[in-house]
Every structure is written in structure tokens, then in C-alpha cells.
Hints:
Layout: H1 2-15, H2 18-21, H3 28-47
Amino acid sequence: MPRRWVVERTFAWFARSRRLSRDYEGLPETTEAWFYLANIHLMLRRLQP
């Protein structure tokens, strides 16, 4: 049960990305690429002092 909150929190972070809030893409590969970009953006924000 505790791991469930980790997954829900991660989905909430991705939902903050406007592009990922709705399913605009036709191909699953495009959606996957946007998830990678959103994740990179999150990690870069954490590295900033």
C-alpha cells in the first residue's frame, strides 16, 4: 500500500505537464517521448539550486 502513493504522486507530476494532461497523440511512441521529456524537466528542476 505505501508504494501506491509513490505511483500516484508520479502521475500527478506528469499531469502537471500540459501536453500530458490530455491524450492528444495518435501514436503511443509519441506519448512515451513526451513522458521522457516531462521526466527530464522534473529532474532538471530538482538539480537547480
